[in-house]
Amino acid sequence: MYICTHSCSFERINYCSYVMTPLLTKIGRLARRLQFQACRASHTERKVEVHGIDLNIVESGNGPHSLLLMPGALGSAWTDFKPQIEQLPALLPDHTIIAWDPPGYGKSVPPKRKFGLDFFREDAQAAVELMRTLNRPKFSILGWSDGGITALIMAGRNADAVEKLAIWGAGAYLNEAEVKMLRDIRDVEKWSPRMRAPMEQVYGPERFAQLWGEWVDAACDIYKLCDGDFCQQEVTQLRAPIFILHGKKDPMIAAEHVPWLRKQLPQAKYHEFPEGKHNIHLRYAEDFNKLVAEFFRSN
Fold it and tell me: Which keywords does the record carry (predicted)?
């Protein structure tokens, strides 16, 4: 009788395990899905006055640490970082994610955008002042393309403020082949409608064409008048931990830039997307977000 009772109990345990394990798995998946959806829904968008300029920002998450998202040329919070705004809070619960529209871009208008020889450094200073205004004087940076250049400037010039940075699609200088490529794509009428659409939705067709032309002209002026130097000096001054990500097939930057950065920054963490192009954070958003979240979580 004792053996029979023990056997029955064992069978009941096996049966409960058979029934409950899949159920608990489903409950766990549902909980994670609900957490993800809550993070997607919980963001705020507002204007912050910084030295007389109303800068548009989008915030998600509510952790004590700060992560600033720096967009690319003509970019804004939503055009450039939608998957990061929506997904990173779940991966970085101890961070507040802050995406901004630089002066003259997106919804940070007025002022009218200015493209002088120092426009990268001016954006860098505006971003630092924004974070001070938000009472977040220490922060990390996620910078794409132009935002990666600006991030390097910020980290090189503000070592006491920038804790970590991750960049992709950025180079510290412009070479002759890149100048030719930029001149070839200056006329947005030669772009496909699909390529123009995101920026035309933000600025309208006429203003987008004007802004892009001004950006290209400014970059070419930097090549002509400043030997193409965007931020080479700041790179040599950088002390913060850095993560360089790269799309192996990125058509927007010369192949020499990543090796140059890695030589100057031998301590940098590096990850390459073999089939990736310029927008790896959008094309491979889930994998990209996990990689950068792990970097920003690490000590």
Answer: Hydrolase
Q: What domain range is 103 assigned to?
A: 44-297
- Domain match, 13 and 159 both: no
In this structure, the answer to whether residues 4 and 152 fall within a common structural domain is no
Residues 36 and 50 in one domain: no
CA–CA distance from 48 to each of 9, 51, 52, 56, 151 (Å)? 65, 10, 10, 6, 20
pLDDT per residue as tens digits for the range 113-140? 999 999 999 999 999 999 999 999 999 9
Residues of the chain with pLDDT > 70, as a percent, come to 86
| pLDDT tens digits along 8-55 | 455 554 545 555 555 655 665 655 555 545 545 589 999 999 999 999
Same domain for 34 and 62, yes or no, is: no
Active site residue 145: yes
Active site residue 250: yes
Residue 142 and residue 5 in one domain = no
| Domain co-membership, 2 together with 92 | no
Split at pLDDT 50, 70, 90, the class of 88 is: very high
The answer to whether residue 51 is catalytic is: no
CATH of residue 101: 3.40.50.1820
Please state, rounded to an integer, the average pLDDT across all residues of the chain. 92
The per-residue DSSP string of 154-206 comes to HHHH-TTTEEEEEEES--SB--HHHHHHHHHT--GGGS-HHHHHHHHHHH-HH
- Which amino acid, 100? W
How far is Cα 252 from Cα 276, in angstroms, rounded to an integer? 12
**Of residues 95, 257, 278, 281, which has the active-site annotation?**
278
**Total domain count for the chain?**
2
Q: Are 96 and 174 in the same domain?
A: yes
Structure token digits, residue 83: 């998957």
Catalytic option among 145, 146, 257, 281? 145
In this predicted structure, what is the pLDDT of residue 4? 45
User: Exactly one of 140, 250, 257, 281 is catalytic; which is it?
Assistant: 250
